[in-house]
Amino acid sequence: MPPTFATIAIESHPKARHGSSKTPALLTAEKRKENKEKREEKKDGIDQALAAWWESSVALANDLSNRYKQKPKYFLEMMFQGGARMVNSQTKINPYNAFRAEKAAECRDNGESKDAPTLHHDYFEEYKTLTDAEKDAYVERFRDTKKCEVKLRRDTPRGKIQDVANIVRNIKLLMVGLGTRVGVEGFFCIVRNSTDFHIQPQWFFTSRELEQYMPIATRRKWSTVEVGTKVEAFCVAGCDVVNLLHTSKQKADFLKAGIREGLTEKLIAITGNPNAQMAYVWYEEDVVQKHGVELVGWTFPQLLNPSELSTSLSPLQELHDAIKNDTCKFVRLTAQQLRARKQKWEEDVAAGRIEVKHRATRKDKGAKRTLPTDNEDEDERSDEEDDAPAPTTSSNPASKRRRTTASIAQQPVVEEPDSDAEPPAPVAKPVARKARGTAKAASAKKPAPKSAAKKTLRDDAVTRAAAAKLKADSLARRAAKEAAAATASAPQAPAESRRPRPTPRGNFTSKELITSEDERNNDPDADEDDDEDEDNTLPPPRRPRAPRRFSSADEMDTEAAAAAATAPGRAAASGSGEAAAPGSATAAPASVETEAPVSPEPAAPAPAA
After folding, report:
1. Which residues are registered as beta bridge partners of 188?
2. What are the extents of the domains in the chain?
């Protein structure tokens, strides 16, 4: 009966596979045969290349064997194993080697000296007649002889240098072989730490590119020789960073940092908690009762934070050495010791001898805290403007400051003009008025700095265009005012020789225009208004009056003549550009069909519209 297999429950509907490749079309027999021939041809080419490489490797091993008197296998192992055999010790002893070693010792005792081929020729037949027990006996005697031998090494400077050179050579072979087999990169540096012998720092990089990358990795100038010399000097000095520091404070800070780090590492090691932290103020609660450990070997009379310890180097060095030598360490308390420790702590708390862990009290507890007002913000802004440098046209951005409601309200808003849009209608700008005096806060009564009146102006294309437009409007109003004054001071023609101007197109008549100009010229505050207009962006608009209707042309001429008789100079000034010349009284306006003689009688009021 065939074995049954449990199937995994699947969904009833087919599962959509997004991004899956389509099933390729079936190949024909000719195409499959062609692909097979290509694969076989490729495989044959690889085999031939490997065979040629193997033959060249064997030939090279034979050449090296003849040149250096070593077996070809030795060089092949060096090629393919990369020196890995040097780290593998031979644990099993060959019985024939033990037998031959004993026979060589007997020949030396008899005063004979035989090499390995001679020993093999003389004693190999005897070795074939040995039983397994006799072979094991030879092996045990050979092992005992090796244990009893004492290799004496001459500890001289030259012997140390040779030993270092051999180890460095083996490490290089091992790293190169490991990189060839596995694919690793690395480097090492070997320096001496004593003055008994002299040897240069031994550097080795698995690739030249790795050494060239070191200046980029360290982001500074890298010199392999210089780094090796400094490392050697540091090691000869005893590998003590304190010896490299200059001032007493630097040495004290270094020792305190080492004390703090050492205690934290020991606490983490004994508790197994990587987040454990050493507490000095609440040591009893956060260390003893929480973790169940106790610090022993503290050299100072009182447990304090290392930052609060004395800067004397001798006590700090003593505590640092105690932590380094495990004289000062943490020990685990038993359950009975922990209960006794906790009971004593509770008694001390009840008696008031120690203080329970609590949060620190705020310094301004009980004092009313107020938020900064707008006046204080203005004072701070004035101080910042006083200290700030003059504005320049450089591309460096200005420093930012806190924005308040007052500063946002006072900040002018300038909109960029739109070339496609129609010009905006003139809007009356309210006249600036002085604010009434109010009570000021105590913080606002202090005198303002000298530079408080100097406001920082914006310097951009929009602001410059607005300023130029204001200046041009002011100059235009001033020129119009001067022209009106010059026209008023000139001699005027007789009233009867002047004709009223024709009625302009629109809802305004000649009399209304003349009357409005007369009212403005007779207004004593007109000059003041002009001065105020120079300060404002646009003049305040006047409300247009309702148009006056006349029943006939005679009535219109009568009103115009009466207005001209009352203010001949003003009428001439307002219509100087279009007034008729003397002698042209017969010319009639374009909007009037008939003309009546001028009558000094007042005109009747116009009917209601």
Report:
1. 204
2. 82-148, 157-239, 256-333
